[in-house]
């Protein structure tokens, strides 16, 4: 197979068609360099675009070499950018230079926030962080100095960065956390430590604390993206449908089928409705489980008035509004496990689990 | 919401209204459906109402109660209601939840629902 077969003379001398003829060759080159990379087709299109815009300047017969050089450049640029992004991903600060005057103001605010955040770290933490990030010292050499291991230093750096991010966001927004629960929660979110988040009951705190709810946004999304968990905020009627559809979708991906799916969706619908009716706002989180066996857990949290008499609320037919009183007891029958806690004035948490019923 | 495709269609066939629910309805949409249907019963002097819920993947306590309310109101307005098309999984979940359809007539599908209404009319037992 010759790499560049002599093409027939174009009949209509249409430039665009001429350039489009390059596509098979470009695809071959891109595939050889980046394989099945998701950006492969983007690279081809980007190259075609560049060739098209430069077409007037290209001498006849030079279109192919021009395209080949261009595609190489596009690929190299992509690798360089990915490399740079990967190197800087863990950093608090974006190293690119700001351009506009407006951006410069923002940048100076960011800088002062960074120095405030740095000053709030413990001395030792700050020294190690600066030695590593600014002076570029390797974790191994830092470890040798303190008689520790490179792994321990890296773990400490990770914790320090998490703390640094929390302090930075607090300094940038110029707020002091309103309660003494805020910092531990923000730290657990910033370090993407799920065990710690559960220990400090981070989801409930975010519902209760407006400041943390706002601050948590830039802190989250740093951990790996989780596809086995969905949070649906509940505030109005349409959210009830959204919650049960999200639960159904996640569950069917996990292997739930038929009646189990419908029972799960019905139970989610009931607990989500309780939030809308009694608490007006809250959230339903749905999480796939693989231990002790495959299943799904639904947690409905609200910051409503709480339930005064839990035992009665779990009785069939007990309703404080003109309802049927089937929501909670019915949900308990639809799920395999059911747990409810409620603190008058604080809110209610319903936690329910359904296990996958594997046949055969 | 009103600009999108209709969530429910209500068609008239003789003196029977056939209401088909096309997609999952939230609580306020369910109540709007109830009001529309009740209004049309009077407008078209309907004597029978068939509600086709085959497209609903969940019938929870609120949906069941609304359907029963529609049937109660329709009866007071002189029309008989038949609910048709409840999916087997949905029926299972309703029983587990502790919901039935009470006194409301149900039928397997639209055809059975029509036959049920025709049967009532034939025996002349339409109105108590």
TrEMBL record, chain B:
InterPro entries: Bact_StressResp_Reg, STAS_dom, STAS_dom_sf. Residues 6-117 form the STAS domain. It holds the Pfam family STAS. CDD domains: STAS_RsbR_RsbS_like. Coiled coil: none annotated. SUPFAM superfamilies: SpoIIaa-like. PROSITE patterns: STAS. It comes from the Bacteria. This is Anti-anti-sigma factor. It comes from Knoellia aerolata DSM 18566.
